[in-house]
Model the fold of this input.
Amino acid sequence: MPPGSRAPDRPGLRVAVVGAGIGGLTAALALAARGHAVTLAERRTGFSEVGAGLQLSPNASRVLIDLGLGPALRRAGTEPSGVTIRSLRQGRSIGAVRLGAAMRERFGAPYLVIHRADLQTILLDAVRSRPGIRLLVGRSAAGLEESETGISLALEGGNGRAETLAADLVVAADGVRSALRARLDRRPLRPVGEAAWRAMVPRHAVPAALRGEETGLWLGRGRHVVHYPIAGGERVNIVAVLPQPGDDGDWGAPGDPARLRAAFTDAAPDLAALLALPESWLVWSLVDRRAAAPMARRRLALLGDAAHPVLPFLAQGAALAIEDAAVLAACLSDAADVPSALARYAAARAARVRAIQGQARRNGRIYHAGGLAAAARDAVMARLGPDRMTERYAWLYGWRPA
Done:
């Protein structure tokens, strides 16, 4: 039995999880560890994730470590020593954030950066090794039908074949464009007029000044860039956020490198050299939507981006989904009454996800400030110093599942 699990006091529930992204895979593992029988349905038939790194702050890494994934995370992830914050145009230092050993000592878990594909592989390998989890690929959610004693999930395969899963509850972890969210909340996605451009390059090709273990954050009016080593330190993940009107809905579409470079013609020399390296970029339009109210009702629960998309200015999208999975499993640990357990889950997550969504929006305004607002931001960061910059987010990184 993996760490964090326990023998159930009563027969486990039948749980259908829709979506095998980071949140859905973590939910399947956490629920199976509590003795529940999980069927995980994914519309894709393959699981490749290209051009995307992600950050696992202590609030997320401790959940995965408790599920027995610590050794695999240490092999695949990188632990940056800190964040170096620079002016996008001048290249001068603005401030820093302490990570590395200081994070582990302060919060009891590491701050890791990892390629999304590597994390998904770790989670998939764990899912496939657990006898209490059944994985179905090439299936999309087509509908739900609830009763007093259960819920039926209709699935459709790519060949048009339909099937129905009978369950005690359904967990919708099917992303920001969830097919099931409308059952609880119909508010539309809101384009924010920006896009994240993502690429990876070999670390040895990066300008020497940017090859360190730290994360780099470059702030400018209306734009910012983040980069950090992934893939065991062999590659560097780059994310550039810049203005882009609308939302074409085509996430991960190829972007023209010339357009990206044109948006940063005034960048500091080292940053300009870094941004000139990728031969291809993938582009994600940024969208926002307030957390579903509620995140669960009766026998349906939302999880991750399906429940609460998070703008990338706090690096908490994957972390929040992982938190959701841990809290959901805890609420269902002794649940004979599924609707009451899901009501507890929704209540337990509401305030925290709203706070994190709000802080991510504020960070976006701070990162992209110009003029006097940027000068004030820079002065505050310099005055706080690396340790106090870290401590500002103790409320975030110190979270532990009850």
